[in-house]
Structures are given as C-alpha cells and as structure tokens.
Specification:
The complex is a heterodimer of chains A (607) and B (351). In chain A, strand 14, helix 12 (356-373) and strand 15 form a beta-alpha-beta unit. Chain A is globular and about 90 Å long. With 607 residues, chain A is α/β, with parallel strands linked by helices. Chain A has 19 helices and 23 strands. By secondary structure, chain B is an alpha/beta fold. Chain B has one domain (23-348): Rossmann fold (3-Layer(aba) Sandwich), CATH 3.40.50.970. Chain B has eleven helices and twelve strands. Chain B is globular, with a radius of gyration of 21 Å. The termini of chain B are far apart. Classes of the chains: A alpha/beta (607), B alpha/beta (351). The interface between A and B is large, with 74 and 63 residues.
Chain lengths: 607, 351
C-alpha cells in the first residue's frame, strides 16, 4: 500500500510546548541536511510558553523545493491532545509514530496509515534519573527511532551531538544513549528502513540553514547600522536579538572594548520609531523591527518622517491580523497599512524579501534607499521567513560595497555656499539636500511636521505648501526608478501558457516555483511569473501585467492587498487581476497554488 | 509674525564671549507667541546661558514636541539644528539623537501638556535612561494652542478663564522626576531670569538628564484671578529655597557669601555648582528629604523653586551602555563592516 519515497517526503512532529522538543527536531532536520539532502523546517508554535500544542514540519525534497507541500507523510504524534487531528492529517499510505507507554483508548484507526507504537516514556523513565531528563530524552529517543526507520546516517547524528554539546560532554553521552534506545527499539520491532527513506546526496554543499530574522539582523550590521531601538513583539524580537548578538561579537572596539553600536529597548513602539528618527536625523544608520500592531503605533511618526524627509529603516515581520490576531502564525497582511502608514497623503517605500538571502541583502538596499530618498523604508518580511529554518545558498559579501549616504552637505560644501535651504529640488530628481546637526551653523534648519515651504520655513500659504507636497509626490516617482526591479521568471524552453501569468510577493515564492513545475507536469503550459520586490512599483510591473488577459495575484491575506495596491497605484483594470489568497496563518503550500491556479484557469477557459 | 525678519546687525560695542560671539549670535527667529508670554523670557534666559558658557551654537541640538512651548526652539539659537517632533514624543527623538551623537549638547523644550499628559511615558523613560540633555517644561497649567483647557499640572480648584474649577489633582513634574531617579531637578519662574540663567547653565553642564520645571504664565488663557499659574499667584507663593551658583572650571571662585551657606558639587568637566540655600535646613543632595520638603510646602500652597536635587555621580546612558566615546554617526564604515571573511566564518556555524 505504500509507494517508495526516497528523499521526498514530509515529517511532521506534534509536540507539547515547553517539553524541549525544539532542539531534538532541529537535530533531526540538520542531520538530513548534513546527509546532503535538501531540507527545510517550519515551526508552528503557540503564543504560549508551556503546555499548548506545537508542531514542527520537516520537508525533505531531493528536487530542492523548500516550501510547504501541503501533505504529511510521517507524523510523530507526541501530543495526546491533538492525536486525532494529527492522524487525520497524514496522507494516505503514510505513517504515524506515537508513544505507546500508555495505550490510547479509543485510538482512532486508519487502515491506510501505518501506526508505529514505541514506549518512549517507559524507556526514558527507566534509563534516566532526573524528571527533566525523562521528559527531554523522549524527544531524543524518537529521533533515534527515526534514524532507524528513515535510514539516517548515525555518524552524522553522532557528530552533531558532539558539536552541540562540546562544552558538556556528559550531555552528549546522555543524548547518544537516548538515540540508541530509540534506534534499537525500532530495528527490533519494525522492518527498517521504511519505504519512506533517505539516501545521501550532494545537494546541500555551499548551503546553510538559517532563519530570515538572523540574516536581516546580520544584514543590518553589514549595512553599517549603529543604532537600534525596539519594543519586544513576536515575531520580530529575534531580529533585534540577532543584531545585538552579532554586534557583541563584531562591533567592540578591539583596543578600548567600547561598543560601536547602541541598542536601546524602548518603552513602546512609539518611542522605538522616535529614537530611530532622532538617530537618523543625527546621521547614524538606525532601524527598528516590529510587527503589524507596532506599525499601527508607529504610524504618526512615520508620517512625520515622510513629510519632514528623515531616513529610517523599519522591518515589519508580519503576523496574522487583524488586531492582536494570531501572533505566532504568518501572513502578508500589512501591505496596505505599511504603504500608506500615517494619516493624510502619505506613502511609504516598501521592500518585499522572499527568503533569508533577501533579508540579508535587502538590509543594505533598505538603508541605501532610505538615505538616498530621505524617507522611511519598510522591509515587509513575515513570520515564515523570519522564524523558520530555511536552506539557502551561502550568502556572499562584496567587500567593495560602500553605503550610499545620499545627499548630505559636509562642512566644506556648506562653507562654500551662500545659504542652505532644506527642501529645494536642486537636482531635478525631487530629492533635496540635507545637513547634519553639529557640522556647521550655516546648515542649521528646523525639522517640522507642520506646514513648511521649500526653504524649510514654517508656512500656512497654500502655494508654498503645495509646492512641497507636489515635490514629495515626484520624489515617489524617483523612488520607483531606484527600488529593486521585479524578478521575472519565464521559461522559454517550454511551451508557454498563453493569456495567463502569475504575480506575487515575498514568501509565496517557493510555493509558486514548485507549483509552476507541477502544473506543467499536469499538462499545463509554462506560466510566466513575476515576483514584485518593492513599492512604489517599478515600471516593469505594469508592463508585465499588460501582456496577459488575466494575471493571478497570489498573496497571503484575505483582502488581496497587493492587488488593491496594483489597482490603485497603476490604475489597472481589476478584472484582469484575479486574486488567489491564502490567509489561514500557515505558510502557503504548493498544493494550494496548484489547485487554485488549475481552478482559475478552468474558469477562465470556460468564460 | 514669522514673516518679519530680524535685522542682522549687531552693535559693535556688544560684549563678546570667549569664542568671540555676541548675544545676537544666540538669537533665533522672531517669536510668534503672545506679547508677555513667559516662554519668551525663558528663551531669552536660554540664549544668555549658552552665550555665557561660550557654547558654539551649531554644537547644540534643539528638540521639542507640540504646543506653544515646543515652538520656542525656533526663537533661540538659530545656528543650531532643531527638531519639532510630534506631540509628547520629543524624549524619544532626543534619545535617538543622543544615541547617534553623544558629542552634541541637547536641549529639549516641552510643556505641561506635552510632558505630563500625552508624553508622560516618554518623559519618565528618558529620565530612567538618564539621557544627557537639558529638559525644560515651560509650565503654565493650560493648553494654549487649543485655547485654554486645563493641563495635568493645573492645581485642583484652580479656575479656567471662563470660571470652571479643575477637579483633578496636579502632576508635579519635580516630585515625579525626583521619585523616578532624575539626576538633576530644578524649578524656576519665567519672571525671575536672574536665578534662571545660572540654573540653566548648571543644567547644560550636568552629565545626565537635567529637568527644569519653569513656571511660565500664559497671559492669554491662565493669568486671571483663580489661576494658580498666573504671574501674581506665582510671585506671591514662590518659596525660593536653593539658588544655583554656577562656576566654570577655569573661573576663580569668589566667596561672596558665608561659605557655610554653600554646598558645592564638582561636575564632570571640573565646573562647580554651588547651592546657595535660603533655607539652611534644605539638603539638595538628599532625595528623601527633598521630596518631603517639597510636599510639605506644596500642602501650604507654596511653589518651591531653585536647584532642588542633584546626584553627585550621575551615569548617563552611553556610560551605562559602554558606547564608544566617538559619536556613532561619525564612525567610518570600515570600522563597522565585518567583511567577507567574517561572514564566511559566521555561516560555517549554520551548517
């Protein structure tokens, strides 16, 4: 009944939060990675510290697909509370492993799923002394069983344990003992390995496993950011943690031990963005990180920064909305609120990274754009990118990079000029020149969010006011020429699907790439696909859309926010933009896109 | 009347300070506040203080929130950059600016509405972080720009122009600041420039957060009978307790008064603040007795003024954080960029 699956399946581990499963699950994923097999791990965790259900999903893909497929082939059901739902989720022909120490009454059965019982608690209770170890080692023991069942290379596991516990060798021994216990039980009682199994490959060299908050934080270090202020909020906190940690390692003056960085935990998000504006005004590269609720709180200051033309970088690691929503689930739901953050005629520059590689490189892009354009740049990442374990090619750094600090007059330039006026369009690109405090009194001016004229003075005169806001609108046109261009995916070697195309942003990318391949295997033509990288929209976006009868706009929110923005900003006929929306809080799967696009194309052909 | 330009001519006989500047070099744009506004007297004292200290105007950064008081940084030190931020959020702008450049001199100007209502949170946290800045509350007990509503510093029972009595207890920024651990706290009166200038100079020189609550009557909306923030009421109930007597490090200290009346504190750069006590029992370095003294006199309806509290060893934010002495904003990029080899080493841990 089970088809053989080599290096191509999904293991989902259902655990109870706070029982130490995360490190065991991470070890399992990393072992597969070190066998050279492409793999990713996604963590579906509760907004809770202990007791609620939590899942970790590992996708093994010899073809290198790193999104959720939408299927589960092997369930490790360690949470009695969610057992029935977990069993129901297993794909036909799949497996389920559970702790058989306490035989579950009313154990729901499925004839098409192979259930493997292992007395994990019983084994660990006998083998380990401390109460904590008894709980923790159950997780390690199921990893041991999977080593046997899936044919994981034991030496890889052993090395991983040695590295992890290099400073505490006794823990390495205890972990290894638990691995062996699980392994031995599985080999004695089951026919190992299963048809669902692993075999070493060479497809992960030159790659690393990392989450996007870590790379974004590191990217900010490389961008030369020196000041950060933030208020803790899931799922953005680990971005600041990463920045702080890398700064502690890389930004201490070797002679004095002094910090070449300043990290300030603010009292709220209003204060966090205020500090970022104060620091950028004063010439430092400063940023904050938050999520949707924080962006709401920061909105007033973001409007001031737009109008007074102060650079700032803000990472919005999006989570499920509205309101507090589901803080530990993912969505792309702040597109519209970020694009128009603040009251009145305000528009913000947005960047849409698709994975941890983008999070790193777009950090430099964000600071360069913010200072070049003298305006906030919001990096719209999300929980899926920020907190899950992605396999990416090793990040390359170009040592010739120099930050673009934009138009800033220095002391000499100021000395040589008759007078300085803050908001003059000297160069015709609608970007004025600025000066920094402390440099020269000739550069002094008064930043204000109240009406001002092009000289920087207070005004209530209609024409003077309009002059400035009209230039700001033109500046946004300039921004569209400076932001990263969209990425176009057209496979000209294969027959194209005429009349249709796909358009999307950010973390939908992986699922769309796999879906395109699968649709083609299903007999469809190749679908052209554009991934938008920024707002305001680059001119190529409108050009691309104009070539098709219908463009399927794929995004992860309920209200088709990217489509709204395209319709409003590019004045595209909404009939031609067909929404395909995933907003249940789980990272979009390739299955969802295959099914959705097939259905839409069927409807389109029928019409 | 902001369209009026001040003539830019200085009388040749005007006295110059150590860096060759006259008081005119510390002026700003023409004030647009009401004639007789207490805030304008404070601006004038601020100019005097920076002039006497011979601070280069462009090495000062002025920050403010929203309200009448927050407009005033345009009216002094035209050669300094200024930032008129959003309502109640100036402390965060000041904190970020200070984080980026610790070498500048920061003056924050706020009001009772800006600091004690909408901005109470940020005010408290700037004190908690001990940001190196002078923070002024130009306190008139009333919202001027929105035409006369009570602010959080209005005394219970004091009446509005139209006669309504304020039903709520006031927030006293001085007591609040001392209780929050503020390292320099004073209260002045806009009508008393003679005492204000040395207090401002001491506040500018203080390494840490220096709060000055300055009673500054609103001539348009809060200068009537029944107001406890009017010129007349403030003058009648002022209890001058401690005068600041500021001495720069290189000046000779001339003892004009019985030295027994003085308590002296040497500041980080060697300058000295003397406390000339009108009330000899008062100890401006004791937090507990300062609070009870101010409370006692408040109960009697008196406004205690002077340099009321100062911590002798104050650690401002950067010294707590261990920041580089050089401003973050001026660190060269090659000192900030770890380079490609380091990146490869970091990524080796991600395999």
């Amino acid at each position: 009944m089970t088809a053989s699956k080599l290096n191509d399946f999904v293991i989902k581990l259902a655990n109870v939060n706070g029982t130490g499963s995360a490190s065991a699950n991470g070890m399992l994923m990393k072992s597969i990675f070190r066998m050279g097999i492409p793999v990713t791990g996604k963590n579906f965790f509760p907004s809770n510290i202990q007791g609620l259900p939590t899942w970790y999903e590992i996708r093994v893909s010899k073809d290198g697909y790193l999104c959720r497929s939408g299927k589960v082939d092997f369930m490790v059901a360690m949470n009695a509370e969610t057992y029935n739902a977990d069993l129901a989720e297993v794909d036909s022909g799949g497996y389920l492993m559970y702790d058989s120490t306490w035989p579950r009454k009313n154990l729901q059965e499925r004839s098409d799923v192979t259930v493997l019982g292992i007395p994990l608690s019983d084994m660990c209770n006998k083998a380990f002394e401390s109460a904590r170890a008894k709980v923790l080692m159950k997780n390690v023991a199921y990893v041991g069983a999977l080593v046997a069942l899936l044919d994981i290379d034991m030496s890889v596991v052993e090395n991983l344990l040695k590295e992890t516990f290099s400073s505490k060798p006794h823990l390495a021994d205890a972990n290894m003992q638990a691995i062996r216990m699980g392994y031995d039980y599985a080999t004695e009682h089951f026919d190992c390995p299963l048809p669902l199994k692993l075999a070493p490959m060479d497809a992960t060299s030159g790659h690393v496993i990392v989450d996007g908050n870590t790379t974004a934080g590191l990217g900010a270090v490389y961008a030369g950011a020196t000041v950060t202020s933030w208020y803790p909020i899931t799922p953005s906190t680990s971005l600041i943690d990463a920045f702080s940690l890398f700064c502690q390692q890389l930004r201490k003056d070797p002679e004095t031990g002094e910090n070449n960085y300043c990290v300030i935990q603010a009292e709220d998000e209003l204060s966090a963005i205020g500090m970022v504006l104060g620091a950028n005004w004063n010439g430092a590269r400063a940023f904050t990180a938050t999520s949707g609720p924080g962006v709401s709180l920061m909105s007033e200051f973001l409007g001031l920064a737009y109008y007074a033309e102060i650079p700032a970088v803000l990472y919005d690691v999006q989570r499920v909305s509205p309101s507090t929503g589901m803080p530990t689930r993912t969505q792309q739901c702040d597109i519209v609120s970020a694009a128009y953050a603040s009251h009145g005629d305000t528009k913000q520059v947005l960047l849409f990274p698709s994975d941890p590689t983008d999070c790193f490189h777009m950090s430099q892009v964000a600071f360069d754009l913010a200072e070049r354009l003298q305006t906030p740049v919001i990096v719209l990442t999300d929980l899926d990118i920020g907190m899950n374990d992605w396999m990416i090619p090793e990040i390359k750094w170009d040592d010739s990079y120099q930050p673009d600090r934009g138009k800033v007059y220095d002391a000499k330039q100021l000395k040589d000029m008759d007078a300085f006026y803050r908001y003059l369009d000297v160069d015709g690109d609608a970007i004025p020149w600025r000066t920094l405090p402390g440099v020269d009194s000739k550069g002094a001016y008064f930043v204000r969010g109240s009406g001002h004229n092009k000289f920087g003075g207070y005004t209530e005169k209609s024409d003077e006011y309009k002059d400035v806001v009209d230039r700001l609108r033109r500046k946004f046109d300039t921004a569209a020429t400076l932001v990263p261009a969209p990425i176009l995916n057209i496979d000209s070697t294969k027959p194209r699907e005429k009349g249709y195309a796909l358009l999307s942003i950010g973390s939908c990318d992986g699922a769309i790439r796999e879906a395109r391949d699968r649709l083609q295997q299903d007999g469809h033509g190749n679908l052209d696909y554009m991934r938008v990288q920024a707002f305001p929209f680059h001119k190529d976006v409108a050009e691309f859309i104009s070539q098709y009868e219908q463009v399927f706009v794929i995004e992860q929110n309920r209200d088709a926010q990217l489509r709204q923005l395209l319709t409003v900003e590019l004045e595209i006929d909404p009939q031609r933009l067909i929404p395909l929306l995933s907003y249940d809080g789980m990272p979009v799967s390739s299955n969802f896109i295959v099914e959705g696009v097939s259905k839409l194309m069927k409807q389109g052909h029928a019409a | 009347m902001s369209f009026l330009k001040k003539p830019n001519i200085a009388h040749p006989g005007l006295p110059k300070n150590e860096i060759g500047l006259t008081i005119r070099d510390y002026e700003g744009a023409m004030s647009t506040l009401c004639a007789g506004c207490g805030h304008d007297s404070i601006s004038s004292a601020i100019m005097q203080a920076y002039f006497e200290l011979s601070v280069e105007p462009h090495r000062v950064a002025k920050v403010s929130g929203i309200g009448c008081s927050s407009k005033t940084p345009t009216y002094f030190l035209g050669g300094a950059h200024g930032f008129n931020s959003v309502h109640g959020r100036m402390p965060s702008i000041a904190t970020g600016a200070n984080a980026a450049n610790r070498e500048l001199n920061y003056i924050g100007v706020s009001g009772d509405g800006d600091s004690l209502s909408i901005g109470l949170g940020q005010f408290g946290h700037a004190i908690r972080r001990n940001i190196n800045m002078m923070y002024l509350i130009e306190n008139n007990g009333v919202y001027g720009l929105t035409k006369g509503q009570f602010s959080a510093s209005a005394d219970r029972g004091s009446t509005a122009k139209k006669g309504d009595a304020n039903p709520y207890s006031p927030i006293d920024p001085v007591l609040l600041a001392i209780s929050l651990g503020c390292t320099f706290v004073g209260r002045g009166f806009s009508g008393d420039k003679e005492h204000l200038v040395p207090m401002l100079k001491s506040a500018i020189k203080h390494e840490g957060f220096a709060l000055l609550d300055i009673i500054s009557p609103c001539v348009t909306f809060n200068d009537h009978e029944g107001s406890t923030k009017s010129y007349a009421h403030t003058r009648a109930n002022l209890r001058e307790t401690v005068y600041a007597d500021f001495t720069e490090h290189h000046e000779e200290i001339i003892a004009q008064v019985d030295p027994g009346e003085y308590k002296k504190i040497t500041m980080h750069d060697g300058s000295r603040v003397g406390f000339k006590r009108v009330d000899e029992s008062y100890d401006p370095t004791n937090r507990v007795s300062a609070i009870s003294y101010i409370e006692e006199h408040r109960a009697k309806g008196e406004v205690v003024t002077g340099l009321l509290y100062m911590e002798e060893s104050s650690s401002e934010m950067h010294s707590v954080l261990g920041s580089n002495k050089q401003a973050m904003a001026t660190l060269p990029y090659n000192q900030l960029n770890p380079g490609s080899e380091t990146l490869a080493r970091i990524q080796a841990r991600w395999r």
